[in-house]
């Protein structure tokens, strides 16, 4: 009977010792591959956490969020790579030929690379922007003709909002040069002109005493009066500088101008203004001065 014969063959196949030995060895190798993959993944994740924590401890608190993003991104990339390698090894244990599979994946990746070169460039550039800490969310940067506060950093695009409210969405591949105004302390520079007739030493003393008493949360050090910067026919220019927190120099400059103006007015020190000197001819043909 065909049914009986098929039953006997099935029983014989299931009771074959070599079959179960081979299956057991294959299952043991698969479990070993999975175990090694998990251990390797755990070790790499711990290494990334340690490196990120060491770098984060050396930076300001505003960089903690960025370093966390870098760690998550690196963990995801490592996980995908290890999962792919583990899956390939397991498929090879079941006798599947990986050559055509890898070749097909290579051809597919090559086609995607040629068809989306700009996209690949944007993603790679975005990855290195995050990895190298070029700028972070909240930083004030300038790239090309765009300047503003960074609102979002993605792997493909970066959003920058200008101080007048415009939102610029820039592909990362177009970011070739970046000027970051939010990393180092900035310098506020104020040039004050006083009338040529005023006493320079007195004006310097008034400005210096005013700057010493000036208080602001953005100031790193008290403003410093450097001295005379320029001499013009109508006045003398005095330069004052102040080290302040990153990107706060416009605020400090405006406040310094206000405080110095009040101090000069209170001391009766005039600033230069246009003056006209006229000459009046007398009846005898002489000339007398007048103003």
Give a nutshell description of this structure.
The protein is an alpha+beta fold. It is built from seven helices and ten strands.
Structure description:
With 291 residues, the protein is α+β, with helices and mostly antiparallel strands. The protein folds into three domains: 2-115, Helix Hairpins (Orthogonal Bundle); 134-180, SH3 type barrels (Roll); 186-267, Alpha-Beta Plaits (2-Layer Sandwich), CATH 3.30.70.100. Helix content is 51%, strand content 21%. The protein has seven helices and ten strands. Helix 2 packs antiparallel against helix 3 and helix 6 (200-212) packs across helix 7. The longest helix is centred in the N-terminal third of the chain and has 41 residues, at 17-57. The radius of gyration is 37 Å and the shape is elongated. It starts with a helix and ends with a strand.
């Amino acid at each position: 009977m065909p049914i009986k014969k098929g039953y006997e063959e099935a029983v014989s196949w299931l009771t074959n010792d070599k079959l179960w030995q081979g299956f057991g060895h294959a299952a043991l190798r698969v479990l070993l591959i999975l175990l090694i993959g998990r251990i390797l993944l755990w070790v790499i994740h711990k290494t990334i956490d340690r490196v990120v924590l060491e770098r984060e401890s050396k930076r300001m608190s505003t960089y903690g969020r960025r370093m966390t993003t870098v760690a998550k991104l690196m963990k995801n990339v490592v996980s995908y790579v290890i999962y792919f390698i583990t899956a390939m090894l397991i498929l090879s244990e079941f006798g599947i030929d990986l050559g055509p599979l890898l070749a097909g994946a290579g051809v597919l990746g090559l086609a995607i690379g040629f068809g989306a070169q700009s996209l690949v460039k944007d993603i790679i550039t975005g990855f290195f922007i995050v990895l190298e800490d070029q700028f972070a969310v909240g930083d004030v940067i300038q790239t090309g003709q765009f300047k503003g506060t960074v609102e979002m950093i993605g792997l493909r695009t970066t959003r920058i909002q200008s101080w007048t409210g415009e939102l610029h969405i820039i592909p990362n591949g177009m970011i070739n040069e970046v000027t970051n105004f939010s990393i180092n302390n900035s310098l506020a520079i104020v040039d004050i002109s006083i009338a040529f007739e005023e006493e320079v030493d007195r004006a310097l003393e008034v400005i210096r005493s005013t700057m010493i008493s000036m208080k602001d949360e953005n100031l790193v050090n008290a403003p410093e009066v450097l001295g005379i910067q320029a001499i013009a026919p109508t006045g003398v220019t005095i330069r004052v500088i102040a080290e302040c927190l990153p990107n706060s120099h416009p605020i400090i400059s405006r406040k310094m101008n206000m405080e110095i103006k009040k101090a000069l007015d209170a001391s009766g020190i005039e600033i230069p203004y246009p003056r006209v000197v006229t000459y009046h001819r007398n009846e005898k043909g002489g000339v007398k001065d007048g103003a």
